[in-house]
Write a structure and sequence with these properties.
Layout: H1 2-12, H2 19-28, H3 35-45, H4 50-59, H5 72-96, H6 100-111
Length: about 110
């Protein structure tokens, strides 16, 4: 999360979001920098209009969690199916990388 904060600080200060600038901000905060994470962040933000993402993130309503099933057997079967779907979705996301909506959702968490 500190990497996203660094990028937002740079954006707010009208500075270019580069690997070097993000690294400087993190080091100034006393954070040990992971260069791979910095590169991934900068690459992901190149195609994102941060002002639009912030507007979208602020406008997004929160969604309530669905109710848990009442039956123990049904809950176990549903849980196993949900876990399998979650693992499958994670595998797909790793292949594709973060979507614009996921990036916006990440930015939304900063202001919610």
């Amino acid at each position: 999360m500190e990497y996203v904060y660094a990028a937002l600080l740079l954006h707010y200060g009208k500075q270019e979001i580069t690997e070097e600038n993000v690294t400087k901000v993190l080091q100034a905060a006393g954070i040990q920098v992971d260069e791979v994470r910095v590169k991934a962040l900068v690459a992901a933000l190149k195609e994102v209009n941060i002002d639009e993402a912030i507007k979208t993130a602020v406008a997004m309503p929160t969604v309530a969690a669905p109710a848990a099933p009442s039956g123990a057997a049904a809950g176990g079967e549903q849980k196993a199916g949900a876990e399998a779907k979650a693992e499958e979705k994670k595998a797909e996301e790793k292949k594709e990388g973060p979507s614009e909506e996921e990036i916006a959702a990440g930015l939304a968490s900063l202001f919610g």
